[in-house]
């Protein structure tokens, strides 16, 4: 068993505008939890600079502790984190 990973311990910085990106959504993709980060400063086009971080579901402490965290939610809103079909 690997050590758990908590996505909240990771900061995501944009290599284009040099500011921290914001966690925008969460989705499940098979064995992976996929977190999407985007720039929110209007400098970057999120479609270009968006970052996807994939964490193996079995070691993802954040999703386990907050199972209701929403896919598609913004600014930490709570939701269902529904699986991706
Ligand atoms: Zn940026």
What does the secondary structure layout of this molecule look like, with pairings?
Blueprint: E1 22-29, E2 32-38, H1 46-49, E3 51-56, H2 61-65
Description:
The protein is α+β, with helices and mostly antiparallel strands and 85 residues long. It has a domain at 7-65. The protein has helices at 46-49, 61-65; strands spanning 22-29, 32-38, 51-56. The chain has a 3-stranded antiparallel sheet with strand order 1-2-3. Strand 1 (22-29) and strand 2 (32-38) form a beta hairpin. The longest helix has 5 residues, at 61-65. It is elongated, with a radius of gyration of 13 Å. The protein starts with 21 loop residues before the first strand and ends in a 20-residue tail after the last helix.
Task: List the defining traits of the structure above.
85 residues, alpha+beta, three-stranded antiparallel sheet, 2 helices, 3 strands, elongated, disordered C terminus
Short recap of the structure:
With 85 residues, the protein is an alpha+beta fold.
Low-confidence stretches: 71-85
Q: What small molecules are bound in this structure?
A: zinc ion
Query: What is the global morphology?
Result: elongated
Question: What string, H for helix and E for strand, traces the elements in order?
Answer: EEHEH
Secondary-structure-based class equals alpha+beta
Question: Radius of gyration in whole Å, from Cα?
Answer: 13 Å
The percentage of residues in β strands lies in 15-25%
Mean pLDDT: 79
Q: What is the spatial order of strands in the main beta sheet?
A: 1-2-3
Work out the number of β strands.
3
Largest sheet: 3 strands, antiparallel
Number of helices: 2
């Amino acid at each position: 068993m690997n050590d758990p990973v908590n996505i909240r311990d990771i900061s995501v910085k944009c290599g284009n505008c040099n500011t921290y990106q914001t966690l925008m959504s969460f989705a499940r993709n098979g064995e992976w939890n996929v977190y999407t980060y985007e720039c929110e400063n209007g400098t970057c086009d999120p479609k270009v600079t968006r970052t996807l971080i994939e964490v193996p579901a079995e070691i993802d402490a954040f999703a386990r502790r907050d199972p209701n965290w929403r896919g598609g939610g913004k600014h930490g809103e709570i939701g269902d984190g529904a699986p991706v079909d």
